[in-house]
Amino acid sequence: MSLESVRHFFSSHAPDVEVIVTAESSATVPLAAAAHGVEPEQIAKTICVRAGDSVALVVMAGTARLDNRKFRDRFGTKPRMLGGDEVLELTSHPVGGVCPFGLASPINVYCDVSLKDFVEVIPAAGASNAAVRINPTRMAELTGAEWIDVCQFPNEGSVAAQ
């Protein structure tokens, strides 16, 4: 169902974007980078977090991590990762296929500025072996995402969420 909801999303909103289904899993950043022949940072990973009473999807560069301080400064609270069952229920997407497209219910979507370094990023597409290639600005426009700065890369100094 999830892959189909993503396909439906693109057929309705961006028919020129092709959902790519691979034989191998792309459920993790390293697997996705290998499956699509790109560097890990070009994978647009999507995490589902709770910020106080709200749930949000944060899409970020594959090697970036949430920075607790930046997140707290932006949302006024520490991020809390949701469990796999809750993510599936809220998004219709299984962990490894979570993306901001074809969601089961309205969820605020945020794109981290770490994605702006790329002309094209590869987010998942509703299944652990599905993805799309898309310009990050277009992805933000299609999903109504707000651009924020809540991440850091591993070599930057700060406190990151796991």
Question: Concise description?
Answer:
The chain has 162 residues and is α/β, with parallel strands linked by helices. The protein contains five helices and ten strands, in the order αβαβββαβαβββαββ.
Beta-strand portion reads 15-25%
Number of H- or I-type helical stretches: 5
CATH architecture: Alpha-Beta Complex
Helix content: 25-40%
> Which CATH C-level class is it?
Alpha Beta
Whole-number tally of structural domains: 1
Do you know the CATH topology?
YbaK protein
Give Rg in angstroms.
14 Å
Distance between the termini: 29 Å
Structural class: alpha/beta
Characterize the structure shown.
The protein is an alpha/beta fold and 162 residues long. It has one domain: Alpha-Beta Complex (YbaK protein), CATH 3.90.960.10. It is 27% helix and 23% strand. The chain has 5 helices and 10 strands. It has helices at residues 2-13, 29-36, 68-75, 84-91, 136-143, and strands at 20-21, 43-51, 54-61, 65-66, 80-81, 108-112, 122-123, 130-131, 146-148, 151-152. The strands form 3 sheets. Strands 2, 3, 5, 6, 7 and 9 form a 6-stranded mixed beta sheet that branches. It has a two-stranded antiparallel ribbon with strand order 1-8. A two-stranded antiparallel sheet has the order 4-10. The longest helix is centred in the N-terminal third of the chain and has 12 residues, at 2-13. It is globular, with a radius of gyration of 14 Å. The relative contact order is 0.25.
